């Protein structure tokens, strides 16, 4: 007769996500996971697979739960540029926030740590980035159609520039204790929309 799990797999996955987010993939050992999750190594392997598989599942969970409002925020009826500005400023504020800045973004952290040599992680990073860049581009196309953005601007290129800035804000915010650095960069980028 099969034994029932004595732990909640969803709670364990959330805990693994938190630990990976805090420490990174390489700096998190299987022993760290056993201690932090409070479950045995065999249970981790039986439920989630290898450490790498657990990390990928944690990335998937992160993608499901992070910023679900972004698409809604950028697709509201009416003027589009105020929403774009609000999103960029929110990223800057999060990057400058003492409570949030040290963790950074799991996707951005993964891009730097694993994506160059881990195709599965790289695919998840690209997918996550597309979920930010695509709504930005759509909002900028709408802004141009509504006369908010000059006709000579390329909405796709602007969306990519803002997206890259937003990822950079997360990296710089994580490493710098000068909040003006990220806020000033965001405001200068937003000035290009005028």
Automatic annotation (TrEMBL):
The keyword DNA-binding applies. Transmembrane segments: none annotated. Residues 29-48 bind DNA. It comes from the Bacteria. Signal peptide: none annotated. The keyword DNA-binding applies. Residues 6-66 form the HTH tetR-type domain. InterPro entries: Homeodomain-like_sf, HTH_TetR, Tet_transcr_reg_TetR-rel_C_sf, TetR_C. GO terms for molecular function: DNA binding. Keywords: DNA-binding, Transcription, Transcription regulation. PROSITE patterns: HTH_TETR_2. PANTHER family: HTH-TYPE TRANSCRIPTIONAL REGULATOR YJDC, TRANSCRIPTIONAL REGULATORY PROTEIN. This is Transcriptional regulator, TetR family. The lineage of its organism: Bacteria, Bacillati, Actinomycetota, Actinomycetes, Kitasatosporales.
């Amino acid at each position: 007769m099969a034994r029932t799990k004595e732990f909640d797999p969803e709670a364990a996955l959330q805990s693994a996500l938190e630990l990976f987010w805090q420490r990174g993939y390489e700096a998190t050992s299987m022993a760290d996971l056993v201690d932090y999750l409070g479950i045995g190594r065999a249970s981790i392997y039986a439920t989630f697979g290898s450490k790498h598989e657990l990390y990928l599942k944690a990335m998937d969970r992160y993608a499901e739960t992070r910023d679900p409002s972004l698409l809604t925020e950028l697709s509201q009826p009416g003027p589009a540029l105020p929403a774009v500005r609000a999103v960029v400023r929110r990223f800057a504020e999060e990057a400058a926030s003492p409570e949030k800045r040290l963790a950074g973004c799991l996707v951005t952290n993964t891009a730097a740590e694993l994506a160059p040599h881990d195709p599965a992680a790289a695919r998840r990073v690209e997918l996550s980035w597309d979920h930010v860049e695509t709504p930005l581009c759509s909002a900028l196309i709408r802004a141009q159609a509504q006369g908010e953005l000059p006709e000579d601007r390329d909405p796709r290129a602007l969306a990519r520039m803002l997206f890259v800035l937003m990822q950079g804000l997360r990296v710089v915010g994580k490493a710098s204790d000068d909040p003006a650095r990220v806020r000033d960069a965001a405001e200068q980028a937003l000035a290009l929309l005028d």
